[in-house]
Each structure stands twice: as C-alpha cells, then as structure tokens.
C-alpha cells in the first residue's frame, strides 16, 4: 500500500512540468473531453484523431531518449517499422482468432525491443555517443527502408505474408478482442480510439512516474554529465541501454498501432522524412518534458495535416521552417516555453492574491 | 595493509610517456598531496586510479584487491570517490537534485530527505538548494561537487585541485573540511598547487615530474629540497 502511494507521489517531480490541483484539474478536464469527444463526432474524424494519437507514442519515445537521456536517436522509425511489419507477418500468418491480434501486438513490440537491445548494446557498450549515435541510428533505419523497398518479388515472403517491396504490406487483420458470441473488432474509429486513448494515458502517466523516480534522476544526470554520473557509481551504459530499449518499445507500439489503424505498413515509414518528422514534433513541443511533447506533437500534426490538404509538399518546407524558428526563438521548445511562462504567471497571480 | 597501492604504472599517449613506472602507497587514514609542475601527469594518474584510463602495464591495488581491470563505477562501489578539476556538477539540475542523485542509492524516502538536508547544511548551500547548479559561483560549484563526492562515504577521496579559484578564506575552510573528514576516517589523496593548503592538511607529499615520482616526504622536506624548487623553475634538465 505504501509503495503504491509513493508511486502516485512520483507523478509530480522536478523532471516533469505541471503540479498541484490546477494542473491535475486541467488534466481531468482534458481527459473527460477526450472520453466524451467521439459522442459528438463522426467515425471518420475520430479515426483521424486516432491517427494523431498513434504518433504520440514515437514522439514520447524520442522525448525519453533524447530529451531526458541526451542521446539523439535519429532512428526511432526503425523500431516503428520493425514492430509494424512484425505485427503484419504474425497476424497474416496466424489470423485473428482467440485474441491473437492482441498477443501479436505485444510480440511485435517485444521484437522491436529485442532489436534495440542488440543495437543499443553495440552502441552504448562501444561508447558511441553524441552525433555518432544519431548517424548510426539513422543509417540503421535507412538501411531497413532500402532493404524492405527491394522485396517486391514473390520470393520475399514470411509464410503467407508477402513483403511486397515499396508498396508495403497490407490487409493484416485489425485488433480483435475475443468475446462470447461475436468478437469485437476494433476498426479505425471509436473502438480503436478508446484503446489508443487508454494506452496513451497509461504510457504518459507511467513515464511521469518513471522519470520522477530515482531511475529518472540517473537518466537526466547522464544527460547533464555522464562522467560525473559514472563517478557516483552508476553504470552509465546500462542505464542508457535500458532507456533506449524502453524508447524502442514505445516507438514499436506506435508502429503496431499505425499498422492496425490503416491495415498497411510501407518501407517509407522508415525513410528519411519519416525519421525526421518526430524530431521536429518533439523539438517544437519541448523535448525535455513529457506534457510539452504530447501537446506539441498533436498541434504540429494537426497543422501539418491541414497544410498538406491545402499546400501538399509545401507542408514539409513549413516543418523545416518551424524547426529553424524553434531553435532560434525557443531552443527548449515552444510549448514548454509557454507552459513555463504560464506557471510563472500563475504563481505570481497566486502570490498577489494570497 | 595499505589502502591504495600503485605498482609500476605505465601509460603512453602515442609517443608521450605520461605515467612512467609510478609506485605509490597510501596508508589508511592519511592525507596525501600530489604536487608537480603542469604536465607532470597528476591528473592522468587520477584517471588511471579511477579507471577512466587503463594503464599499459602495472597494477592498481585497493584495500588489497587488484582493481586494474575494473570499470569506473565498480571502483566507486569499492569505496573510491572523486572531485574533478573542472567542477563536474549537473548544471541543468537544482542543487538539491544534484545531492539527491548522489545520495539516492544509499538512502530512500524520509531518510533521503534528512541526509540531503544535513549535507546542504554542511556545505552551507541551504539557501541555494532550489537554484540551478549551473548558476552557482565557481567556489560554490566546487563545494557542491565535494559534497557529492563525500556523500558516497568513500574510503579514499580523490580531490583534483579542490581549492582552484577559491579565495584564501575559502581555501582555508576547505582545508578544515578535509581535516574533519579525515578525522572521521576518510583517506584523502589531493592534487593541489596551493602550498598553504598542502601545508595545512598534508602529512606526506609526493612530487610528480615528467610522469615519474620525483620526490616524496613531509612538506618541510619537500620545500627544503632544492631539486624540487628547480623543476618548478624549469631547470630540471639543466
């Protein structure tokens, strides 16, 4: 019971912005609004919102590894793709009966995490750091993209699942919950929405607890000064690897949910553009804070989609401009800057009132 | 049994022989100062002891155990701790959090809070605890890092120029602190240029020159040694 309570205390702390009744009140209102929202909307719009939510997981993974851990991974999309393809291969081969799709989700995320253990081991225990980490991870994701793009021939298949080269894999079954009578199929509208929303809240709160724990303390300590952290007795490489694997699992979750959402996955999901975009969402939001990352990602995604509808490829140019502006105006992130300003304003207001 | 024993340590950086057959023994409970001109290999010797560099040949024994092949963090677990030359604090984090990170593996919950409070008081940084460590003055950063280093309750504390950039009063206070820690049983090995500090604390002094142990003895013996004065004036080869 006591340890349970201490977990709740860790929801707030020095590593996360937002504390006290004002923040959690706002959190509850946003959550209630999110829960009620499908009742007032149509299936297509709800499905589109799911699409936005799906990307938040990969953004959070980057926030963890880069913002908190200080290691810029340019290749979160590699884990996204591995898990997405993994889910496709598993479910096309074994179908969706007996709740297998849910197991496949977990398995696919685990495959991505396992790959991260391997890659991360060589990087961190080989003391690759800084810009080189970015280069290695980018090379890995581009290599995977190139590899998958050349698998168009019929000889490229895993069991019944054709890899299909640049066109990608499609027609994998959606998530299906076994239910007496008729199984519940979570198509990309209200059903999937509640599942993804639930996962999002779970991951967000879980990461808040993790980052405000002693583990999170060590992670930010390594970002600030790895030598000092080691000389306080922490095995820096081990902590970096664990963080990297957790991040990879989150990116993998993003990939599975994306695959489930559209029932397809293509090599371009691991390409250059796909790899660069999460960096922009996270940088614009505020990479060193979970809440800023979530808000920033959703805002930038919505803006990007609106721009794509009206301006097609110019939207990408806009993303570049946005990144440059962020780096110049608010290097720690636009959303984080606004949130800190609001925090200062609120405390000054309370002081004056009290 | 001696606490630290360096046996014929050698380290090359390319063609540069930075540590040249160094033998050094530290008895438990002593305060030992390491002096020598710039480039004598003092900081390199520290890095060898800490495992940041690995010697080309030779052995490092700590409390009788050969730790030459151990990783740095494992050496810290054995009872080593260090304050670096350039203050190595976590600049973006608060003073309190800096100490929390140092203390959290030994203490939890209310006990952790109490330990942090005690250390803040010891360092005289209570008023600054919410400040970002990067905003502290140079002297305060030095103190904070010393605080983090001693919070591990090490058996051997390595101090690389603990008083660099400090006023004479601060230097004296640091000396008193080192003596207090030593009275509690901590063995100290310090690199220091400030001879007032060395005189205040050290029982034995080792002079390093060109990677070799040049002289060893009490502070009075070292000061009286004309050869030592000569290397500080750059006449050793004359």
UniProtKB/TrEMBL annotation, chain A:
Record-linked InterPro entries: ABC_transp_permease, LivM-like
Subcellular locations according to the entry: Cell membrane
Regions that span the bilayer: 21-40, 52-70, 77-96, 102-124, 131-149, 184-207, 241-258, 264-283, 290-310, 316-342
Membrane topology: Multi-pass membrane protein
Keywords: Cell membrane, Membrane, Transmembrane, Transmembrane helix
Stretch forming the signal peptide: none
Identification of the protein by name: ABC transporter permease
From TrEMBL, chain B:
SUPFAM superfamilies: P-loop containing nucleoside triphosphate hydrolases
Record key words, sorted: ATP-binding, Nucleotide-binding, Transport
Keyword ATP-binding on entry: yes
Domain ABC transporter: 4-235
SMART domains named among the record's database cross-references: AAA
InterPro entries linked to this entry: AAA+_ATPase, ABC_AA/LPS_Transport, ABC_transporter-like_ATP-bd, P-loop_NTPase
GO molecular function, one term: ATP binding
Keyword RNA-binding: no
Pfam families: ABC_tran (PF00005)
Chain's role: Involved in beta-(1-->2)glucan export. Transmembrane domains (TMD) form a pore in the inner membrane and the ATP-binding domain (NBD) is responsible for energy generation.
Protein name (database record): ABC transporter ATP-binding protein
Organism: Bradyrhizobium campsiandrae
